[in-house]
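Ops channel
N.P.: pipeline sanity check, posting one input/output pair.
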């Protein structure tokens, strides 16, 4: 009885219009999902295949490697870098460009001293890539290697030094340099110079890192490697100085006083342009005595006059002097007394002489 009821109920459900509607909708959704999934898989597969199959071309600069005994031979004439054009699958080309895990090599191992034309080859490139090298061939000059030490000479434009200024002996961070090159080139070297660049009318010391150059007897640069390539050069530039005797003069003297000035300082070191120094034999220092109003001894600190003598400096810049002031009236009285005494003595001698004559 129960089974009959279940069967009857199921029959009613399956015969219902809603049952068929629900089943149709479910089937439609299932079919839609299936179709779209297949399309998505197909699209991804196609895109992947297209990406793998797509090719591209890139040109990059890479260092040139020499396969040679560079300890024994000095090699010139080759470029530091060459151009390499890579072509192949895009992903592989881009990876190679980014990593640059390959080399362009010039094999010089079995070549003798002299000039040679060499074909460049790539090493380490993926076989799926094609490549082109520019230039394809290079001409190199292989010579016996030589290293020699040279003293460093400092040069500079003397006309760039301001008028009246002088230079000191240059100070170098090191005095010699190692030069490496082909034996024939090393033999050409006449000197190694550090040319200090100076601006016009330079008046102060120059501290610079200066490039070294190996020159032949005609002043041409020799093809060689210098170690170090630069050195630090200190070139002292300043006004000259000299030591001169010092003397003193008074100014603003009082009417009834006489002055004498002395000092323990006998000489002064003065700094000025060369033409100014050449004119000064003795430096006269004026002493202002306007504040001295009575006889006596006075101490005073006196500055060395710079502007009036066109000086840039003095050492010491001031000196201590002792001023002795005396009354000019007392000096005059003493002179009169001495004169009267001399006259009296002369008259007495004349009288004595006359008396003797009369006898």
């Amino acid at each position: 009885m129960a089974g009959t009821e279940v069967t009857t109920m199921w029959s009613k459900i399956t015969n219902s219009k809603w049952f068929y509607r629900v089943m149709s909708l479910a089937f439609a959704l299932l079919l839609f999902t299936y179709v779209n999934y297949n399309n998505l898989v197909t699209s991804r597969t196609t895109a992947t295949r297209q990406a793998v199959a797509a090719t591209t071309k890139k040109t990059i600069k890479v260092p040139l490697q020499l396969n040679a005994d560079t300890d024994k031979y000095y090699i010139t004439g080759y470029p530091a870098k060459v151009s390499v054009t890579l072509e192949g699958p895009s992903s592989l080309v881009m990876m190679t460009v980014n990593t640059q895990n390959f080399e362009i090599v010039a094999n010089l191992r079995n070549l003798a001293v002299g000039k040679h034309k060499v074909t460049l080859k790539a090493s380490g490139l993926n076989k799926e890539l094609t490549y082109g090298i520019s230039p394809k061939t290079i001409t190199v000059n292989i010579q016996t290697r030589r290293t020699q030490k040279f003293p460093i000479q400092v040069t500079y434009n003397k006309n760039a030094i301001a008028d009246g200024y002088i230079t000191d002996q240059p100070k170098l961070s090191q005095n010699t340099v190692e030069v490496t090159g082909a034996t024939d080139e090393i033999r050409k070297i006449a000197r190694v110079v550090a040319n200090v660049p100076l601006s016009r009318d330079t008046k102060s010391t120059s501290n610079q890192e200066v490039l070294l150059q190996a020159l032949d007897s005609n002043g041409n640069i020799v093809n060689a490697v210098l170690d170090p390539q630069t050195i630090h050069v200190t070139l002292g530039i300043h006004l000259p100085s000299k030591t001169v005797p010092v003397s003193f003069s008074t100014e603003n003297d009082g009417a009834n006083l006489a002055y004498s000035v002395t000092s323990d300082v006998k000489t002064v070191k003065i700094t000025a342009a060369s033409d100014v120094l050449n004119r000064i034999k003795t430096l006269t220092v004026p002493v202002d005595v306007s504040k001295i109003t009575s006889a006596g001894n006075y101490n005073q600190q006196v500055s060395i006059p710079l502007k009036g003598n066109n000086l840039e400096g003095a050492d010491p810049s001031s000196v201590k002097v002792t001023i002795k002031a005396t009354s000019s009236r007392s000096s005059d009285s003493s002179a009169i007394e001495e004169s009267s005494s001399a006259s009296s003595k002369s008259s007495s001698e004349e009288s004595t002489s006359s008396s003797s004559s009369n006898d």
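N.P.: looks fine end to end. The chain has three domains: 55-135, 144-238, 241-331.
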